Amino acid sequence: MNWKNRLLKNFKLYAVTDLRESDPHFLKKAEDALKGGVDILQLRSKTLKDGELIRLGLKLRAVTRKMRKLFIVNDRLDLAEILDADGVHLGQEDIPVAQARKILRGRFKIIGKSTHSLEQALEAEKEGVDYIGVGPVFSTPTKPLYEPVGIDLVSKVADSVRIPFVAIGGIDAENMEQVLEAGARRVAVVRAIWGNSNTFKAAQKLKEILNHHEMPILQV
What we know:
Strand content: 15-25%
Radius of gyration: 16 Å
């Protein structure tokens, strides 16, 4: 089992960017967050132009590869291919998983999918995704059109789904314990890292909380 497979099965902290404008300091912020404990970095922006995303993505790809962290692209299979990302994260309205697999065939590529109900989580597992996102657990400005699913869904997914799942949506150091007590062992955050001036310390604090909760030991 290579390091990518091992990290995919054992990751705890997943950081999703929400880039709304160009930030010349973002590469340093991302590198610090990775050093602080982020296991997976997802490149996400609904506003930056493709050229800018590619320039930043290539730099992030180099950093994550050097540090042996996973690099995922949100939605865009074309950008994931251009950047040689480790995978892509799909939404409910994006390209079907089976079609995404055909496009990414022949190489180790991760496919994740957002889910907002137990039915969607079980369906995504049947589709063969590598992990699922469950949320938004709490209200969040990054997903203003979605009603919070609450920690009850986290518990249901923890009891029903065998593949890795990551709780996402409004999670921070203040409420993470609730999510972990509900059965999550992995969390994805946006503002809890990027909203801090010191992304290293922000990631480190989140990872410390996660490390206080046991995870199943991977058999290799």
